[in-house]
Amino acid sequence: MSEQEQLRSIRERIDGIDRELMRLISERAGCAQTVAQIKRAGGSGDDFYRPEREAQVLRQVKDANPGPLDGETLARLFREIMSACLALEAPLKVAFLGPEGTYTHAAVLKHFGQDVQLAPMASLGEVFRDVEAGSCPYGVVPIENSTEGVVNHTLDLFVQSPLHVCGEILLRIHHHLLSRETTLGTVRRVYAHQQALAQCRRWLDANLPQAERVALSSNAEAAQRASQEAGAAAIAGDTAEALYDLTGLKRNIEDHPDNTTRFLVIGRQAVIPPSGVDKTSVLVSTSNRPGALHRLLTPLAHNDVSMSRIESRPSRCVNWEYVYFLDIEGHSEDPKVKQALAGLRQESELFRILGAYPRAVL
């Protein structure tokens, strides 16, 4: 068999596989529509997003992956199929810190897929208020960065908010130098968010020491400025590059290649069923007395429950008293976690489970 005959045979097979894929995806979409009809008929409401179910599906895809595509790639493909099917059930609107083109925008797309309805907000406070008011069923907010630390404003908003944590998103942050210019030598000014400038300081010192550095409210705003000014460049990500039609003069200029930001999905309803691989976030406070924090955390150790993060913020009620934010491994309904939380509640003056939710899959 000649080379052309071999290629023709393989291409015909690919065409057949594509037709079968379309049939199966359409069948899956039809099942999603049936789910919506059953829920509406049964009075289950219009909230069709099930974080624990989606996490289970994506983990199953990764675990059952036969290759040659890697598990992350295959899970991303299924993420988009699930997003499109969910949009058939009911359009999902998500609030986030805008404008479009920010890393939070990228986090929304990573977690919810391309078929989500975007609702960019001017501040984190507006994201919380919009979800609390029910204008958007869910929001996405940054909580911590692996190099810059915790986002204190997000923690402070949780203290006063009744919202729940419904999920988490881990986004690897790759900073690119974007511009209308074609060479580094013509860049006279670099726009970026203050944190992005800090995270690329060494690269900028070595490669653009003479360029003015201008801090803006977001990297998306930086990309917009760079798209309109000669001699300007922006530090931003792939989403902003495509949105503002810029050229990547240099990619991955961050000083720490493992730079990652963690985001939380917030909503009015708690995620009740465990997914199997979960976290629980808790807000607690205790009086300022010797050994108070030790006693507060002892129930975790006694029940062999691991704590992955602890942060403190001023209570703003009494001077020198603090509230603590804890992330612990496991779901609040797991027996060991449940027992540990009961002990934690006894030692606390303020105790609130912010959410028990699936750990990030992608």
From TrEMBL:
Residues annotated as site: Essential for prephenate dehydratase activity: 261
Superkingdom of origin: Bacteria
- Gene Ontology cellular component list: cytoplasm
Give the enzyme's EC designation: 4.2.1.51, 5.4.99.5
Residue span of the signal peptide, if any?
A: none
| GO terms of molecular function | chorismate mutase activity; prephenate dehydratase activity
Q: What is its subcellular localisation?
A: Cytoplasm
Q: Name one GO biological process term.
A: L-phenylalanine biosynthetic process
Pathway annotation from the record? Metabolic intermediate biosynthesis; prephenate biosynthesis; prephenate from chorismate: step 1/1; Amino-acid biosynthesis; L-phenylalanine biosynthesis; phenylpyruvate from prephenate: step 1/1
Ranges for domain Chorismate mutase come to 1-93
UniProt cross-references to InterPro entries, sorted A to Z: ACT-like_dom_sf (IPR045865), ACT_dom (IPR002912), Chor_mutase/pphenate_deHydtase (IPR008242), Chorismate_II_sf (IPR036263), CM_dom_sf (IPR036979), CM_II_prokaryot (IPR002701), G/b/e-P-prot_chorismate_mutase (IPR010957), Preph_deHydtase (IPR001086)
Boundaries of every Prephenate dehydratase domain copy: 93-268
What are the residue boundaries of the ACT domain, all occurrences included? 281-358
Report whether Transport shows up as a keyword of the record: no
- PANTHER family, per this entry? PREPHENATE DEHYDRATASE P PROTEIN, PREPHENATE DEHYDRATASE-RELATED
Functional summary from the UniProt entry: Catalyzes the Claisen rearrangement of chorismate to prephenate and the decarboxylation/dehydration of prephenate to phenylpyruvate.
Name the chain's protein.
Bifunctional chorismate mutase/prephenate dehydratase
Q: Which species?
A: Acidihalobacter yilgarnensis
